[in-house]
Design brief:
The chain has 5 helices and 2 strands. The chain has helices spanning 13-17, 19-29, 41-54, 73-97, 114-120; strands at residues 8-10, 33-35. By secondary structure, the protein is mostly helical.
C-alpha cells in the first residue's frame, strides 16, 4: 500500500455544490483536501499530459483553488474506529458465507462504515 497522502486535489461540481463532503474526505483520509475551482479540470489535465510530451520545457501555471479543508483529528480517530468495526463485520460475513475475503485497498479501506450506523445507532 502507498504511503499517507500529503494533500488531495478534488475537482468537479460536487466540490462547489457540497463542500461538506470535502471536510468528510479530509477527515477520513487524514490529509488536506484542496478544491480545484476551475471549470473543465479534466480537459486541463489532458492538456497538461499533452504538454509534457510536446513541450516539456514550458512552465505550468497552478490551478485556481478554493479553501483548503484540513483534517480534524478527533473525527479522523472516529473514522478509524468505524473502519475497524466495519472490517470485523466484513470478515464475519465472509466467514459465514464461506467466501475468500478481498484484499483491502488504501482509499476504500479507510472509509467510514454505513453498517455501524445501521446496526448500532451510532
Amino acid at each position: 500500500m502507498a504511503g499517507q497522502p500529503q494533500r488531495i486535489l478534488a475537482s468537479g461540481r460536487v466540490t462547489q455544490d457540497l463542500p461538506a463532503w470535502l471536510q468528510i474526505l479530509a477527515d477520513v483520509l487524514e490529509a488536506p483536501v484542496i478544491p480545484v475551482t476551475i471549470k473543465r479540470s479534466t480537459l486541463r489535465g489532458t492538456a497538461l499530459i499533452a504538454l509534457d510530451v510536446l513541450a516539456p520545457e514550458v512552465a505550468r501555471t497552478a490551478s485556481a483553488t478554493g479553501e483548503i479543508r484540513q483534517p480534524v483529528a478527533d473525527r479522523a480517530a472516529s473514522y478509524r474506529a468505524r473502519k475497524q468495526d466495519y472490517q470485523a463485520l466484513y470478515e464475519a460475513a465472509i466467514a459465514l458465507a464461506g467466501a475468500e475475503p478481498r484484499p483491502q485497498s488504501g482509499i476504500v479501506g479507510r472509509a467510514s462504515s454505513p453498517l455501524r450506523t445501521a446496526t448500532s445507532g451510532k
